[in-house]
Amino acid sequence: MGIDRAVWASSATDLWATPQDFFDTLNAEFGFELDVCATDENAKCARYFTATNDGLAQEWRGVCWMNPPYGRVIGDWMRKAYESAQAGATVVCLVPSRTDTRWWHDYAMKGEIRYVRGRLKFGGSKNSAPFPCAVVIFQPVTEARAA
């Protein structure tokens, strides 16, 4: 049974579980090692951070997957993703395409942006999300990429 339509159209939740097939396609490309923002039920990697161990307070290394809460704290997660890439991590972020927001301009636009065609169906829901999404990729700057 999917999430009630009224919940999808409201701000009642800011947690949107990543569709498995969508993740699998990106995982085949990137080979994720760490899910930085998960629950025990929806973690996409063997290594993951939950609210209990606070992913924002942890060091992100390697190739990281991030599907953050889509509420007011999303800017904090995007800043952490960007800063982690500056420190050497690759962070691939699934976020709502909110091109009018401060966090989008401050962080998303510093990464590679891939707009998602259509609307994703999160968490096995029968209904599509009421918002468009994008994948933002932050990669460490290497000498080869900088040249």
From TrEMBL:
Superkingdom classification of source: Bacteria
Protein name stated in the entry: Adenine methyltransferase
Keywords: Methyltransferase, Transferase
UniProt keyword Coiled coil, yes or no: no
Pfam family, one: Dam
Any single biological process term in GO: DNA restriction-modification system
GO molecular function, a single term: site-specific DNA-methyltransferase (adenine-specific) activity
